Every structure is written in C-alpha cells, then in structure tokens.
C-alpha cells in the first residue's frame, strides 16, 4: 500500500498532495539497490524512511549496538568475541568456530577482513549473514591491515593492504578484467623507515611512515599508474627508544585528515607516563598541520587495524563520549595496562578499559565501529 504525503489547508484540514511508493518497495528490491551504492550514498539511503533504514541495518549490521572491541579469548578455546565499552564485559555473541584460526585485519559495514596466516589466504566475512568472499592473494604476506572503500557487495569496491614489514602497500580492485593488485610505495618506505598506518582519504590512499612523514597516492588502477605527493615532512625518529614507544594513526574525520599520536614511557614496573597529541591537516597546499584541542560532536576509535571517527551523540547509549579517543593496541599490553583506554582531549584524562575475562595478546584487538 502506497504511503500518502499530506499537508494542511488554511482551515486546518488535511489535504493529500501526492503519494509515495518508495517506502513500500519489496525488501528484495531494496537490498539490490543498496548493493549498488557506495558507502557515502548508503548514508542518504538510511535517511529516506524506516523501511530503507531497516534494510541497511539488516544487510550490514551486527545484532548489537556498536562500537565494540573484537578480541580473542584465551579461556574459551581461542574464540573471537566482542567486548562492550559500556558494560565492561564480554558479550555472548561470538564469531563462528571456523574463524578461530584467523585474525581480523580490517572491517567495514558488518564485514570483517579475516586473515588465515597458516593457509596464506584472506576472506571478507559477514558473520550475521553467513556470507563470505575470497580476497585474491596479495603481493605481500602476512598482511597487518586492510582498508576497504565499501563491502564486497558494493559495485567497484576497492581494498588496500599494508604488509606486516611495512615496506609495501598495495591496492586491489575487482573489475570486468578480473582482480588487479597494484603495489606501490617502495621508495617512500625505504627512505622513511617503512609504513605504520594507512587510510582512504578523499578517494586516495594516504600512508603514514615511521618517521612521521605522510604521503598520498593518486592511483589509476586501469592504467596501472600512480603519482605520489607528500602531505607531511618527517619528524625525529619515532620508533622504539629506551623505555618509551610512540603509536601513530591516521583518521579521516568527515574529509579532514587527522594524525593521532600516543607515547608510553615506562619509568618502572608500577609507574608509566603517557602523552597524547592530535594534529589535523590545515592546509593541503602548504602541508601545514595544526594541533587539535577539541573534537566537536565526534569521538575517535584508533588502533593498528581500524581507526575511525564516529558521531558521539548517535552512540551515546553505547557509552561513547564526545571529544574522546578510544585506543586499542596489543603490542604495549605487556608494558603498561593502558593499551585499551579512553582519553579525553578537553580534560586530559586517561581512563583504562579493563577487559572482563582478559584477552589473548597474540592478536590485535579490533574496534568494530559504526558502518558509514
């Protein structure tokens, strides 16, 4: 039955001015429409009406509020489970047992990028829909991180892979000719100590080097060409120094490219000093970066696998606070207890997030963030 669009006359009487059938489209047809859209268009689709939003949620979402933290539990046969920031506990929803031998190296819109290192293969899985798609063998292995422009159900989706050694990044696109990997960044990685993070920004791939330099790669997969421009100059050596460690992340916040840095310094077994710094690319032409003192209306979730900005008000019920950065990192867990924490930029306070039931630090904890 078609839905009516009405208004009121000057006398206060309801007058039907037209009819809309969009809300009454069959769910099968709506799903086919959603499959053809890119991630940004899906935002508009969710705002059309309740039935369109329900289709997006049913197709791409997990059966609980997000963001959540995906971890491996050492006490349950190594199963992958989710930790609730709000409740401070492990959720009963766990991933299928056949994923136990894998680790998560990326996520988008309810789809997890799972690497099976022993088998040297990668799958993109939707555990809610029980669907998966194979990713062609990348030019580097193992892969530490993959970012996707959209789910594998979207037309023309693109994936980028970062090797664990950090000396190569690669782009993948599926088209009529098949699958195409294009490796890039060899010289930049060699000159700047390798890559430690990457992000899709304004349709291009940005890469963050160990010395703090940032590059953007403008690629044409069809012509197999790529041009490189530098967005940020190197800093002092940011790697491991005596008793301290820097973590660096790239985050896209509604078109603004942000650099998040966190430093740990272990003074002794019980005392740890830390420092957090956020910068934003203020001028693309001048390559200038400015310090960020507040993040209005948003929160940042950062980690070595997934980093994303989310609207804080939309997820306040999940315990997300405006202007906060949520960190999750495996490699410092043995050094300090603040590997998983919440940092307020305005207050300058760090709040640790203890994971109930503990977790296996052999794999990276991964933020499962809201789909865009």
Topology:
Elements: E1 3-8, E2 14-20, H1 27-35, H2 39-46, H3 50-60, E3 68-72, E4 80-84, E5 89-94, E6 103-108, E7 111-116, E8 121-126, E9 131-135, E10 143-148, E11 158-163, E12 169-175, E13 178-184, H4 186-191, E14 195-201, E15 204-209, E16 214-220, E17 225-232, E18 244-253, E19 256-266, E20 272-283, E21 288-291, E22 298-303, E23 308-311, E24 324-328, E25 340-344, E26 350-352, E27 366-368
Parallel strand pairs: 22-24
Antiparallel strand pairs: 1-2, 3-4, 3-27, 4-5, 6-7, 7-8, 8-9, 10-11, 11-12, 12-13, 14-15, 15-16, 16-17, 18-19, 19-20, 20-21, 22-23, 24-25, 25-26
Q: What does this entry look like structurally?
A:
Helix 1 (27-35) crosses helix 3 (50-60). The strands form seven sheets. Strands 23-22-24-25-26 form a five-stranded mixed β-sheet, with no helix packed on it. Among the domains are: 21-60, Monooxygenase, CATH 1.20.1280; 101-238. It has 372 residues and is mainly beta. The protein has helices spanning 27-35, 39-46, 50-60, 186-191, and strands at 3-8, 14-20, 68-72, 80-84, 89-94, 103-108, 111-116, 121-126, 131-135, 143-148, 158-163, 169-175, 178-184, 195-201, 204-209, 214-220, 225-232, 244-253, 256-266, 272-283, 288-291, 298-303, 308-311, 324-328, 340-344, 350-352, 366-368. Mean pLDDT is 79; it is low at 1-10 and 14-19. Residues 19-53 form the F-box domain. This is F-box domain-containing protein.
